[in-house]
Amino acid sequence: EFLNFMQQNKKPFDLLMSYYECAIMEVETKFRVLNHELSLEYDNNPIESIKTRVKSYDSILKKIRRKNIPLNLRAIEDNLKDIAGVRVICSFPDDIYKLAESFLKQDDITLIERKDYIKNPKPSGYRSLHLIVQVPIFLQNEKKMVNVEVQFRTIAMDFWASLDHKMRYKKELSDEEVEILQEELYDCARQSAVLDERMQGIRDRITKKQEQETILLEDKNSK
Ligand code: 0O2
């Protein structure tokens, strides 16, 4: 049925996918700009890396089936809000919130949904801050609002999620093995959350010290 739909709607479907590509470019640029500005201000890059993807046909099809979404472009656009995905990887949890706040303050960004799996991790142990936003893209004759999912993770959260993802897609594992690995992964998630907090604590102490010395130096120079 999906194949049939794709054959009949190939052009409009590809056009819709190209809008998601454009929206990804817009959002990625916004984060590059923020990273550039913050790196000058604080002498430190808050963003480690940015990964982007448009959801594959396969994943789109699976989600349509799972959620019983009617097979037409309008329904896909309205119901699948994560076709365009941008993943922002930071070193420290605080930088995630700082970046998310600056991003959401921009007047062309509309927040549709926010899920904070850092404050409230998933039962699997998964941690990340998810935002669904709408961003305008400017085409030849129109302005189009496009949904983008932004996932913010620390390096540790991303490392964990990649391993968890690997396990989920390994068909060779028995149910029993999966259960054991899930418990082990859950434990790792808790430990990595503690690690994130400790590293953040160290970073905060270093910056505080730097700030105190700058104030001392300014005081000395003004006398
Ligand atoms: P992919 O390959 O990243 O596209 P839904 O999106 O409707 O299925 P919900 O609750 O709206 O479900 O979305 P949720 O759980 O907020 O976010 C879904 C995405 O978060 C997933 O995308 C994963 O990228 C990530 N995610 C959520 N939970 C886990 C987890 O336990 N482990 C890992 N590794 N990732 C997780 P997709 O569409 O599943 O996959």
Structure characteristics:
223 residues, alpha+beta, five-stranded mixed sheet, 5 strands, binds ligand 0O2, NT_sf, GTP_Pyrophosphokinase, kinase, kinase activity
Number of strands: 5
Average per-residue pLDDT, rounded, comes to 94
Q: Would you tell me the structural class of the helices and strands?
A: alpha+beta
How many helices? Answer: 6
Principal-axes shape call: flat
User: What fraction strand?
Assistant: 15-25%
- Return residue spans where pLDDT drops below 50 for at least 5 consecutive residues: none
Helix content: 55-70%
- Strand order in the largest sheet: 1-2-5-4-3
Q: Which ligands occur here?
A: ligand 0O2
**Radius of gyration over C-alpha positions, nearest whole angstrom:** 21 Å
Largest sheet data: 5 strands, mixed
Q: Topology as H/E string?
A: HEHHEHEEEHH
Keywords: Kinase, Transferase
GO molecular function: kinase activity
Pathway: Purine metabolism; ppGpp biosynthesis; ppGpp from GTP: step 1/2
Domain RelA/SpoT: 52-175
